[in-house]
Specification:
By secondary structure, this protein is mostly helical. It is about 85% helix and about 0% strand. The protein has helices at about 1-40, 45-60, 60-70, 80-105, 110-120, 125-155, 165-175, 180-210. Helix 1 (about 1-40) packs across helix 8 (about 180-210). The longest helix is centred in the N-terminal third of the chain and has 39 residues, at about 1-40. GO terms for molecular function: transmembrane transporter activity. Part of the binding-protein-dependent transport system for glutamine; probably responsible for the translocation of the substrate across the membrane. It holds the Pfam family BPD_transp_1.
Length: about 210
C-alpha cells in the first residue's frame, strides 16, 4: 500500500511540476513584456501595464481560476483545465515577475547606458549585450521566490476539479483513512520540489557571477 501510494503521489507531483513549468514560462515572458512597457514603452501602454499589475496583485488567484474556468465556456472558449491553469496562473504571476524585472533593470547604473552609447552601440544592441545580462543577475534571487510561490499555488487546481499532487494526496487519505500521513507525504513532495528549484537557482546564480 505504501509503495502504490508513493507512486500515485509521484504521478501527482509530475503533474504539479508540469503545471509549474508552464506557469513560470508564461510569467517570465509576460512579466518581461510588462516591465519593458513600464520602463521604455509609450506612456499610455506603461500606465496600462502598471494598472494590470495592481489589479492582478489585488485579486486572489483562486478567484481568477474559478471565474475563468467556469466563465470561459460561456464566451465560446472551451479550453482544457490545464491550459486555463497555465495561462491564468502565468498571467497572474507575471504581475509579480514584472516588478522583479523592472526593479532589476532600473538598478543597472545609468553610466552603463552612457558607456554603451560612447562605444557607438545602438539602443537594442546596448540593451541585449550590456543591460540585460546585468539585470538578469540582479533579478534571479527575487524571481526564484516568485517561482516557488507559483509551484505551491498549483495546489489551488484541486479547487476547480483538477488533479495534481494535493488531489492525489486527498484521494489516498480518503481511501486509506490516514489523512495526516497522506498530507505529510504531500508536504514532503512539495518540499523536495521547492528545495530542488532553490538548489538549481543557487547553482545558476553562482555560474552567472563568473560570466
Amino acid at each position: 500500500m505504501l509503495t502504490s501510494s508513493a507512486l500515485y503521489l509521484a504521478q501527482g507531483a509530475l503533474v504539479t511540476i508540469g503545471l509549474s513549468l508552464g506557469i513560470i514560462a508564461v510569467a517570465t515572458v509576460a512579466g518581461m513584456l510588462l516591465a519593458l512597457l513600464r520602463l521604455y514603452g509609450w506612456r499610455p501602454l506603461g500606465l496600462l501595464a502598471a494598472a494590470y499589475g495592481l489589479v492582478a496583485r489585488g485579486v486572489p488567484l483562486l478567484v481568477l481560476l474559478i471565474g475563468s474556468y467556469f466563465s470561459l465556456p460561456y464566451l465560446g472558449l472551451d479550453m482544457p483545465l490545464w491550459l486555463v491553469v497555465v495561462l491564468i496562473g502565468g498571467l497572474y504571476f507575471a504581475a509579480y515577475a514584472a516588478e522583479v524585472f523592472r526593479a532589476a533593470l532600473a538598478a543597472v547604473p545609468r553610466t552603463q547606458w552612457d558607456a554603451g552609447r560612447a562605444l557607438g552601440m545602438r539602443r537594442f544592441q546596448l540593451f541585449t549585450i550590456v543591460i540585460l545580462p546585468q539585470a538578469r543577475r540582479l533579478s534571479l534571487p527575487p524571481f526564484l521566490n516568485v517561482a516557488l510561490v507559483a509551484v505551491k499555488n498549483t495546489s489551488l487546481v484541486s479547487a476547480i476539479g483538477g488533479w495534481e499532487l494535493v488531489a492525489a494526496g486527498r484521494e489516498i487519505g480518503e481511501r486509506t483513512m490516514e489523512i495526516l500521513p497522506a498530507y505529510l507525504a504531500v508536504a514532503a513532495f512539495y518540499f523536495v520540489i521547492c528545495f530542488s528549484i532553490s538548489q538549481i537557482g543557487r547553482h545558476v546564480e553562482k555560474k552567472m557571477r563568473y560570466v
